[in-house]
């Protein structure tokens, strides 16, 4: 089928590339001429494992093209996906839908023949209704159906998630549109990925509800981690103990410095605002948002405590800046709040991240960027592991110990074991676990 993907950011580029890899003809559209020029030259503007090779392969075979011109691509398409940004709106935290609505107006002006317009962006309940109103008002004679098809991609594993999804949610009130969507996803038939066809508003809410639930799991285990520290329990063992219950599951039960990224922070906040507007506040999600925000700053206090209660004039080495491994995404990354808290307390900060430093520089201009973990630790009074990149899982601690001024390690991802660090002469602090090694270690 012929697909036009409006928006060539993270969701649009991954989705468009994977659709092309299924055999569809895909045109990715973006208003940014520099981005399109880079994509046409084979340069990928984001870091996502495997994406560059997949883009190059499908572009070479002619199934994937890039353009700034919407009219021709939309006119030729069987389905047009809207995959533009929906950031939190300044002032009230509601999702900024201006890009979605602007795309709808441009699409309306270019429609030709029966076309399914698909909202792939994460949008509040009722957005599809407004998209349809805009299109029908601008092009009353157009044969068009508006569908919701939320994405459930994890940064760092997006290609696998797209090709082997847990489910595909299609919000379609028009049977013909539902059939078009089923044909688009037909290549996943052999994977037996369940396709759930719902009403449009139900599909829109499903995306927000899913992200809010996962954010709640993360926040829950983080609060349990705080309790574990006070009573001498081990949060990793608690998480395993409850995660083995099939009703709960083990995923998203890893204690750490709080969630960040492009989805959870803005989507939980948008759900809170949507529920308030509907007169049915989601108090649990409101608490999740508040607890997560305060947790990031609390991690800076944890580092300060590990340094004896003061860091003024000291150098703190931070390993990992992105909100998670295998991405260069710095949006709402815990490192931003942690570093700000350390700087407010008078610390000098050195940092290293395998992929995120270019994205971090505009956000953190007043820190020193190192060339590798050992350069980062050189002369440091403490080493803080913030993002659990694979490159940080087997560090040479003898080399680190020789480079650092003080043997202090704060592991905010629980990558290491207390007994291993103690044996190497470090004072070790983790999250929700005893800092001292077990007596029989």
UniProtKB/TrEMBL annotation:
NCBIfam families: NDP-sugDHase. Substrate binds at residues 152-155, 207, 252-256, 260, 324. Its EC number is 1.1.1.22. This is UDP-glucose 6-dehydrogenase. Pathway: Nucleotide-sugar biosynthesis; UDP-alpha-D-glucuronate biosynthesis; UDP-alpha-D-glucuronate from UDP-alpha-D-glucose: step 1/1. NAD(+) binds at residues 30, 35, 86, 122, 155, 266, 331. Keywords: NAD, Oxidoreductase. It catalyses: UDP-alpha-D-glucose + 2 NAD(+) + H2O = UDP-alpha-D-glucuronate + 2 NADH + 3 H(+). InterPro entries: 6-PGluconate_DH-like_C_sf (IPR008927), NAD(P)-bd_dom_sf (IPR036291), UDP-Glc/GDP-Man (IPR017476), UDP-Glc/GDP-Man_DH_C (IPR014027), UDP-Glc/GDP-Man_DH_C_sf (IPR036220), UDP-Glc/GDP-Man_DH_dimer (IPR014026), UDP-Glc/GDP-Man_DH_N (IPR001732), UDPglc_DH_bac (IPR028357). One of its GO terms (molecular function) is UDP-glucose 6-dehydrogenase activity. It is an enzyme of class 1 (oxidoreductase). Belongs to the UDP-glucose/GDP-mannose dehydrogenase family. Pfam families: UDPG_MGDP_dh, UDPG_MGDP_dh_C, UDPG_MGDP_dh_N. The active site is at residue 263. PANTHER family: UDP-GLUCOSE 6-DEHYDROGENASE TUAD.
